[in-house]
């Protein structure tokens, strides 16, 4: 599976690892699993490490679908923060498009350490 994740329940932090060629259906599957996971509470912090990923058929239309799924769980969004770490300019530009549309605070980074600091993980 191109997107796996772990939940630190005591810190309410989700660490997602994105690897290989990732397609729209992979992200939709991840978002649906994320929202169905009872361990993740409102105000969560999420670190999406996409440094090992290559975007497949990811387009801005995917972001609208993700936002629709997020809107079905509005109680999760207040205080939620997501850091997306990308390896390239192409990934950065794509992730920034999501950042601009997201319903919660999302910041795109090229440094894992800086992303962790922003999330308060270090």
State the low-pLDDT regions, or none: none
What distance lies between the first and last C-alpha atoms, to the nearest angstrom? 28 Å
Instruction: Describe the global form.
Output: globular
Write the H/E string, N to C: EEHEHEHEH
The average pLDDT value, as a whole number, equals: 92
Structural class: alpha/beta
Task: Report the CATH superfamily.
Answer: STAS domain
**Into which percentage range does the β-strand content fall?**
25-35%
Please give the count of helices. Answer: 4
Percent of residues in helices comes to 25-40%
What is the class in the CATH system?
A: Alpha Beta
Q: How many strands, what sense, and barrel or not for the largest sheet?
A: 5 strands, mixed
**CATH hierarchy: architecture:** 2-Layer Sandwich
Query: How many domains?
Result: 1
- Which fold name corresponds to the CATH topology? Transcription Regulator spoIIAA
Number of strands: 5
Radius of gyration (Å): 13 Å
Q: What strand line-up does the widest sheet have?
A: 1-2-3-4-5
């Amino acid at each position: 599976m191109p997107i796996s994740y772990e939940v630190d329940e005591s810190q309410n932090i989700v660490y997602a690892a994105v690897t290989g060629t990732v397609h729209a259906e992979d992200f939709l599957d991840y978002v649906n699993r994320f929202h169905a996971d009872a361990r993740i509470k409102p105000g969560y912090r999420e670190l999406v490490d996409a440094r090992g990923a290559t975007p497949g058929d990811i387009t801005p239309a995917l972001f609208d679908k993700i936002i629709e799924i997020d809107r079905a769980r509005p109680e999760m969004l207040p205080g939620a923060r997501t850091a997306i770490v990308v390896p390239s300019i192409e990934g950065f530009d794509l992730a920034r498009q999501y950042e601009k549309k997201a319903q919660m605070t999302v910041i795109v980074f090229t440094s894992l350490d800086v992303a962790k600091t922003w999330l308060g993980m270090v």
